[in-house]
Amino acid sequence: MSVSQRCLCCVKYLMFIFNVIFWLGGCGLFGVGVWLSFSQAEFSSLPLSFPSLSAANLLLVAGGITMVTGFLGCLGALKEQRCLLFMFFVILLLLVLTEVTLVLVIHIFHDELDSKAQGQLKEGMKVYSSEPGLKKSWDNVQKMFKCCGVTNKTDWFEILNGTLPSSCCSMGTEQCVDGWTEPCYQKARQWLLDNIPSVLVFGVCIGVVQILALLFSMLMYCQIHCAEKHVE
Question: pTM of this prediction?
Fold first, then answer.
């Protein structure tokens, strides 16, 4: 076996290992997304801008794309096919660029995004009395987090003619006069930040693996191309 063949073999198996880790990382992200979706099933009628629901959907999409990309990378490495490797490289490059862009947008425009999300939730509150599903979701949120309204309990005054829903007070209270003071949006957001710090660390590790897999796929593609040229 020549030096170039040994090098290609080494890169091939390194890329395969990185892609297996990448695929397993995708499974992990998807699993956390499923867990978050089920744990927030009681809030499913709320707009997707609700913090924990938007995070669950983001993890499901990211996990699914990561799993498919990792599978393509493993297949391309084992088969040593330039077409699969090129497809893997393009998808992974787009994925990395999308992730970087998303992180920058969230970091730069987080206040505007929060404001827009809160506006959508307040708009949804207007059908509280006429939509049983939405009513149940809001009641479950307020009971679970011991909060009231989106940004303040006064959010309900316009909706319920100056009164508060019973879920804004302790359980067993028929008529709520002085509800919880903490806003639900901030409570849910804080709950999310408190419960998934390990997911954020995991996401950074997956990002490092993505970059390494990107480099290895490019290197392997070039080596296969050179080997084919040498054979010709």
Answer: 0.67
The string of DSSP letters for 170-204 reads -TT-SSBSS---S-HHHHHHHHHHHH-HHHHHHHH
Burial of 82 (0-12, 13-18, 19+ CB in 10 A): middle
Residues 142 and 167: beta-carbon distance below 8 Å = yes
Residue corresponding to tokens 């490797």: 85
Paired with 176 in beta bridges are 164
SS3 for 152? coil
Tens of pLDDT along 142-183?
Answer: 888 888 888 888 888 888 888 888 888 876 566 777 878 888
Compute the half-sphere exposure of residue 23: CA atoms within 13 Å on the CB side of its CA. 15
Tell me the per-residue pLDDT of 223-232, one tens digit each, with 9 for 90 and over. Answer: 776 766 665 5
